[in-house]
Each structure stands twice: as C-alpha cells, then as structure tokens.
C-alpha cells in the first residue's frame, strides 16, 4: 500500500491519538486530592449544563472555560429531558449528551458527570420525569421500590452509554468523577425510616456499576465507604469530609444566584468569589467547581420553580449569551493561574499555619525541594491591613487573600481586580425593521393573528362538581388548565344597575390565574418565588342571565427541590362571587368543565405543520392589549454576529417560539421597588440578597434566542400572549460590549502571570497596569474618563479625586485611541515624573467607549 508523506503523517497522528485516547487513566484519591495516573491534582471545574445552551455554542463555551483556567467541565444529567415518557428516550439537539462529552474530551478537559438523576438545578421537577409521579405507589427519593427501580434503570442507561463510548477515565475518556443523588443529606431525616436506607442503597447501587472512577455525593454527610461526600455552599473552606482518607471537594461554589419572576437581580462580587476560592485552597481544598460557570437559558418549559425565570444567567463568569462577564471571568482566570503555580508545592509540601494578626493568617506550604508557597488572608470585614511575612510587608485589603507562589512575590490578591470591566448593552433593532413585506406591491408589514376562546374550545375534557388539582390534571403536558362554569344572575340583582359591586374572590395553591367572564379579562393574580399560593379579589362585570366564568390557571415551572416536592399541588381551591342580594355565592362545588391546554398549543400552531390547522387573520396593524392572542410574523435575522435577545418589555405574559423552537416563558414582571443597596460592599459573608439591583424593573426583559435558530430570512416568530401587550414594541436586541473600564492602584500586583509561568524573574519596582481590549473589529473610539491620582467609584461612574494628574486623559488617549487594545502602566514616564500628592497611593482609572 502506497502512502504519501502527508497521509502517512495523518496515519501516524491518528495512531497516536487512538493510543493516547485508549490509555486508561487510573483515578483514585487520598486525603489530599484526586490522584490521576499516580499524580495528585488540584482541579478547577466549571458547570455548563448542555440543555441550557445549544450544541452550536458548546465548543466555544468549553473553550472559554479552558481559557479561563479550568481543568474540568461539570454537568448534571437531565432525566426528564432524556425520557419524556417511560422507555422513550431522547438524546438529540440540546440533549445530545454524547456530543457534549465528546466536545469536552476533544478540548482536552476532564468531565464531572453528576447523574443524580434527581438534580434540583432550578430545573422542572428537579429533573425527575413527571410521569414517574403517576406510576402508582411511587414516592420519590426514599426507600420506595418503584422509585429505586426507575432511578437505577436510568442511571444504568447513562452509565452504559458512557461506557460504550469509552468516556470514563478508566477507559481513556474524560469522566473523572460521577455523582449519584444530590444534596440528599440535608433532608434525609425528613424522610424518616426510608431516608438513610435509600441514601445507602443509592451509594451502593452506584458503586455496583463499576465505572472505574470515584463516586461523589454532595451534602451527604454519611456517604458510605469509598463514596466521597462533598460540599455545596458560598464558602467551603471550613468543610471536612466524613473520613480522613477522603479529599476536600467543593461541588458547588455559587458565583451568583438564580432569579424568579418578580424578584430582584442578584450579583455576587468577583472579589468575594475569588476570596472564597482562595480560602478553600488555602485550607487544603483540592477540587472546586463553579455552579454555574455558564448558566444559560431555561428554554421552553424546562425551568423549575415555581417561578424560576427563563434566563439562568446566574451572574456566572460567562453570561447567558455566551460573553465573558468582565471582570469576573478574567479575575478568576488570574486566580486559577496563581493557584496552578502553587499546585505541586501545595499537594506534596507540608503546611504551617502562622498568625499574622488578630484576623490575619498565613498558610505556608514548603516541600523537600525548597519550594515555598504562601496564602496570606485578611478575614477582617472592615479594615485593610499591612502584614509582615518573612521580612516583607504586604498590603491586604479587608476580606482578601494574597497568593505568593514563591513566598515572596504577590501574584494575586482576591480584592485587587486588575482585569478590565466590560459595559454590556442590549442594542435594540425594532421588529418592524426585520419584518417581511407580504409582497413587493405593498409596503404593509404582516401579522397573522389567531385568538383563543376564553374557555372550553371544542369539547370539555371532563366535568366535575369540584375544583381539581392543576398538576394532577395536566400532568405538566402544558402550563394551562381551563376551569369553567356558568352562573345565572337574576335581573333584579342590584349590581346590574348600581355600578359594579360584584366581586370575584378566588384562592389558588399556585401558580397564576387569569379570570375571564363572558370572554372579558377581569383580573389576574399569581404567587411568587417565596409564596406559591395566592388569592385574587377583583370587581367583575356580570350580566342578567347566564354568565360564562372561565378561569385560566397556570403553572410557571414545577417545584424542583425540597422533601416530598412531587406532592406540591397547584390550581384553584376556592371560587366565590360576592355582592348578591342573598350574599356570596360559593362556586367551589359548582359544576366545572375542564380543558387541558390551549387550542393553539394542542394544534401546534407555532410549528410549520400546525400553523395551517387554524385560521389566521392577516393584518398590518396587530391588535394591542388583547388577551389570549397568538401573533405570528416573518422576520429576517438581525444583522451582525452578536447574540440576540427578544425584548418583551411591553408584553404581558406568555410564551414565544422562533421557527418552532421554544424560546421559553416570558413575563416582564417587576421586582420589588426596595431592597437594592446603592453600592455593593464585597467585604463580609455573601448571601443571595446582599447585592441586588434591578429594583422596580422587570426581572427579565430580554429572552435569549440562539443565533443558530435564525436563518438569514424567512424566520417565523410566534408569540402567545395571555393577558395583553403591545407586539409592535417587541425588539430584537443585540448584546454588545459598548465600553471598557479599568482601575488599578500602585499596591496592586504587577506581575504578569504568563511570564511567571515561563520562569521570568521579577524585580521590585515594576508597577501595575491597565489592559483594555474592545471586541474584535471594534476600536477604542473615545476616552470617557481618565484619572491618575485618587479617583474612586465604579465603571460607568468614576469620579475624580482630590489628587489628579491634569494630563491623564492625553496620556491614555495617546496609548489607546483608535486601537483595539492597549496597555497603560502606572509606570508611564509621564506619571512617574509627576510630583503628585505626596503620601497618596496612586490609582489609575479609565473608561473608554468601543465602536
Ligand atoms: C491505581 O492507583 C492506585 C494508587 O494510586 C493503585 O493502588 C492501583 O493499583 C492502581 N490501579 C491500576 C489499575 O493501575
Ligand atoms: C528575616 O530577617 C532576619 C534578620 O535579619 C533573618 O535572620 C531571617 O533569615 C530573615 N528571614 C527571611 C525569610 O528572609
Ligand atoms: C343567590 O343568588 C344567586 C343568583 O341569583 C343564585 O344563583 C344562588 O343560588 C342564590 N343562593 C342562595 C343561597 O340562595
Ligand atoms: C411574595 O408574596 C408574598 C405574599 O403576597 C409577599 O409577602 C412577599 O413580599 C412577596 N415576595 C416578593 C419577593 O415579592
Ligand atoms: C394528586 O393525585 C394523587 C392521586 O390521586 C393524590 O394522592 C394527591 O393528593 C393529588 N395531589 C394533589 C396536590 O391534590
């Protein structure tokens, strides 16, 4: 067989590849860390959930995690996405788990596979299929025969699928750890006698699958035998595993928090996340995972809840749209690099604890080759401190850790952010601009409209003289359930004449309701992320004779956690009308006719196929503020390549689809007006409400539509609006970085970690610098703020201080204007020669626009 040299090369590289990929890694552990192929390892892991983005985004997200200094990707496995009905499996598109694992493997990264298969995860029903609740005799997550049968069946299916592809490290694949169950230890005792036997069964069942890599159980204090119990929290430095021979692993470090419709926007400051991670490794931690590193989107009806938003941004280092969130992403990247510089000394050296002050301490690691690593911590929540360590002085801001990979030079301090901040905007493009004209003869834009009837369409599904549970009835095949009845009103009733005195009073277990009488919307109400049940009391208009009462009850994501979560119900429990001559009429036990779902849903009008099953009315001006309306229009893709979000600020509540793909639930419900601090102090323990913003604004205004869902033109956008909105104000917004900022001080680390990696030696006296970079193909078009002196404030609102070098702007402009990126150092000749404000620690702050 003849071979050209190039094909020979390919042949040999294929050969090498297959040899190396077939080389099984032996993953074990000791008290200090995981041991992969005989080597202890410190591991930075990052959660990216495959169904919360699209396959087209996966390679880039994984590459960004690797570039951000991660060794591993972590994902849950989403059972209800994979087994929509018993024995009927789905592993395609966003649920193509095999493809996702291949992408991680091909990027040269490890994978932590948290199978669960109960996962919570703010995911619908915690990931367990709703149908399983209706298999008679089933109780979830306890010593229950049915649950254990189905759980083992699914877990085995996943394990076998991974084995078949040789995905476990023991087979040469990327999976180094696998998880069974999820945070069960926190509620084990609530399950009484069934709790502990179930947890032990889950552990032993998992072990029996012989995957060749360790199993973990998070928040499972009694994880037996070789199963490693791990920590989930904002801080895990104080965590210790349940046995002296298990390593300290942090499965969930929350770099932000999730949102519910009607809540404020939580943020966790990068200084505090970095502090928590540095403390964890300082105190002997060996594997840390960010939950989430990219949160992504709860497309369609996948969000849990109730009330979890469609966005699962999580304030993560990579934002929902796939852009690096700066400075968070880059600050953590520097942290990871600094920790990696310490890896072998920390893993093989001896650790000594030194007290440097009342609330200041150092952990010093030294190894037999004379290497020395130190973590200097100041856990004082208020005061910065100067500490002496090995004859040098170090400035430690309050609530910070400095990392000294050689016990001398400060490579990183968790509170000194050197990376730039990006200013991100949603730049609107009115929908009209992308809508297609129906013909070249008419300039009219076209909207197709289909109105749902307020009540039973076609025949009722059933009739009952009682109010039924919503979830038991829909089994989550849809969010919607119609409760309808009729009421005869005598023509002598007062309220028919003396204005509206009739009142509808209803109570529901959750989650939301729109009340219609005689096809007119009378009122809406809903619970919230804290309290699911709610009451609606609203004046109503009745007529003499027969009145049609139609109540549209809705779920907004099913319960995803908590003991016995699958038994939490929803739907109406009481319906009354007051104001009659004879008092209040109680309709709770009236004759109710029920219909599961909407006609448009049932016929799939958001799909090409279903669209023809109903009669659409074509109009150039769509109706506005009309409840129960389906809108359909044809649009072009927004120009450019930036990610796209649908601006639904002027719509009411409903769902949206593009080209038949479910974007998700939209609801620009506003957050409380109060509870947002004017500024966020990163110092001190974080809690989810600590640094909220967005008070009085919609919790979620923009809805991510992946670029890959668009064709260049002819895209069908379908919207179902429940209560009324203005579709002419819908905009497709492009997510763009419009500006960049930087702020560094003289006492910030000046060491370039890349050069440290290459073994370059450092001299005292180099100074910190600001590195600014605009997105590709854009330039720094203006310098909006520049001050060398003692400026303060945050990006977007820096203010000049009492000390200011008057030519700061011209120095910065000279270095940066009309460039894609630039570096301005505090050692710039101009700055150095300036005799400026003696005794002041100099700071440089810059804000620049990108165009
Ligand atoms: C895997 O490594 C452990 C210790 O690190 C060792 O005891 C064991 O024999 C190794 N197993 C294999 C299959 O190489
Ligand atoms: C610190 O200084 C003292 C006194 O000069 C000296 O004995 C000691 O070796 C120094 N320590 C280090 C770590 O340089
Ligand atoms: C009160 O009046 C309403 C409407 O006229 C009627 O439907 C209902 O049966 C009456 N209830 C009682 C308790 O008489
Ligand atoms: C949720 O609703 C309850 C009851 O109406 C209310 O007390 C609470 O403040 C609401 N929470 C939020 C975050 O709006
Ligand atoms: C749903 O139906 C089941 C079976 O009939 C019943 O046990 C359960 O209590 C119902 N749930 C609710 C919330 O009503």
What compounds sit in this structure? 2-acetamido-2-deoxy-beta-D-glucopyranose
CATH homologous superfamily placement of the largest domain: Glycosidases
Strand arrangement, largest sheet? 4-5-6-7-8-9-10-11
CATH fold annotation of the largest domain: TIM Barrel
Compact overview of the structure:
The protein has 851 residues and is an alpha+beta fold. The protein contains 17 helices and 42 strands. The strands form 9 sheets. The chain has an 8-stranded parallel beta barrel with strand order 4-5-6-7-8-9-10-11, surrounded by 4 helices. Strands 19, 33, 36, 38, 40 and 42 form a 6-stranded antiparallel beta sheet that branches.
Walk me through what this model shows:
The chain has 851 residues and is an alpha+beta fold. A hairpin with a 4-residue loop joins β1 and β2. The strands form nine sheets. Strands 4-5-6-7-8-9-10-11 form an eight-stranded parallel β-barrel, surrounded by four helices. Strands 19, 33, 36, 38, 40 and 42 form a six-stranded antiparallel β-sheet that branches. The protein has a six-stranded antiparallel β-sheet with strand order 31-20-32-37-34-35. α8 runs parallel beside α9 (328-341). The two termini are 57 Å apart. The model is unreliable at 1-22 and 438-443 (pLDDT under 50). Helix content is 17%, strand content 30%. The longest helix has 20 residues, at 145-164. One 2-acetamido-2-deoxy-beta-D-glucopyranose binds at residues 488-490, 580, 582, 585.
